[in-house]
Specification:
Strands 6-7-8-3-9-10-11 form a 7-stranded mixed sheet, sandwiched between helices. Strands 2-1-4-5 form a 4-stranded antiparallel sheet, with helices on one face. The chain has a single domain, classed as 3-Layer(aba) Sandwich (Rossmann fold), CATH 3.40.50.300. The longest helix has 18 residues. It has 287 residues and is an alpha/beta fold. It is built from 10 helices and 11 strands. The structure holds adenosine-5'-diphosphate (ADP) and magnesium ion (MG). The site of adenosine-5'-diphosphate (ADP) has 11 residues, from β2 and α1.
């Protein structure tokens, strides 16, 4: 079976602005392969290029170089006409950190989902669509009692579940989540992570999970790509990267999360080691 998602040599530079900011290369020759039903974590500190990479994967940003292939098809093909645009939307969907931005405040949960189904599943009858809405609500762990709610009547976690349900309604091959649980309480975060694992198992969707938090990434991914200033500094199986980090930057990320045995001095030390070695080539233990 071909990989669901192949990224190859993805590069993007934001040009210098007249105000004086220098050009920033937010992604430098990033590549990876993700099988159907696989899950990749993109981690790195704020500004490391994660969102830029995520936007290139779903086609919201155009790479300066490199390609994104989903189910064997180049992501950069121009979608001409309605059918092509719908097919393109089915390749990849994105869930953002703030679902307020992607949810229409006027629509109830049910209407928002029906809206997506009207476009993507014109074959469904009204009863069929209603049934599918129930299935989607169930899949994201939202009771039917929430079907009539509008975004402002929901909690942050519930809104994020709606955003995930809307993305799943399209039945995408790849689902990209950019810091999608970062703003949520730890307990709600844990519920959504468990949900994502279940969705992945049941639907076979491939996940790209973006987070600055390695511990969160570990819950839902089988491979991790660590970014620093647009470069891939480490890429490998999640367990290897977490248990045996090869790069000082990864080690720093692991020890910079305040926990029971957090040592700020160690973080500072690793940062210094990292700064000194950062010209090393990227390592990938995955082909
Ligand atoms: P992350 O998601 O890891 O925080 P981003 O991809 O948002 O990283 O940003 C990577 C770098 O690119 C940062 O230095 C950021 O300031 C810069 N950048 C992001 N978007 C733009 C933009 N639209 N124009 C100019 N610079 C940008
Ligand atoms: Mg970001």
């Amino acid at each position: 079976m071909p990989d669901a998602l192949v990224a190859d040599g993805l590069t993007k530079t934001y040009p210098a602005r007249r105000g004086g900011t220098a050009a920033v290369t937010a992604a430098k020759r990033i590549g990876f392969r993700l099988p159907k039903g696989g899950s990749l974590g993109l981690v790195g500190e704020s500004g490391s290029g994660k969102t830029t990479l995520a936007r290139m994967i779903v086609g919201l940003a155009r790479p300066d170089a490199g390609t994104v292939t989903i189910d064997g098809r180049d992501r950069q093909w121009r979608a001409r006409g309605r059918k092509a645009r719908l097919a393109r939307a089915r390749e990849a969907q994105m869930v953002f950190q703030d679902p307020y931005g992607s949810l229409d405040r006027r629509l109830t949960v049910e209407d928002a989902l029906r809206d997506v189904l009207r476009r993507h599943r014109p074959d469904l009858t009204s009863a069929g669509a209603a049934g599918h809405v129930r299935t989607l609500l169930d899949r994201v762990g939202l009771g039917e009692s929430k079907a009539g709610s509008r975004p402002h009547q929901l909690s942050g976690g519930q809104r994020q579940r709606v955003a995930i349900a809307k993305a799943l309604a399209v039945d995408p091959a790849v689902l990209v989540l950019d810091e999608a649980v970062s703003a949520l309480d730890v307990s709600v975060q844990a519920q959504i992570l468990a949900l994502l694992n279940e969705i992945r198992r049941e639907s076979g969707v491939s996940l790209v999970f973006v987070s600055h938090d390695l511990a969160v990434v570990a819950e839902v991914t089988d491979q991790v790509l660590v970014m620093y200033e647009g470069e891939c500094v480490e890429h490998g199986a999640t367990t290897d990267v977490l248990c045996r980090p090869q790069h000082p930057y990864t080690e720093m990320l692991l020890s910079s999360a305040p926990g029971p045995d957090w040592q700020p001095e160690r973080v500072a030390e690793l940062r210094a080691v990292f700064a000194a070695t950062r010209r090393e080539p990227a390592r990938s233990s995955l082909a």
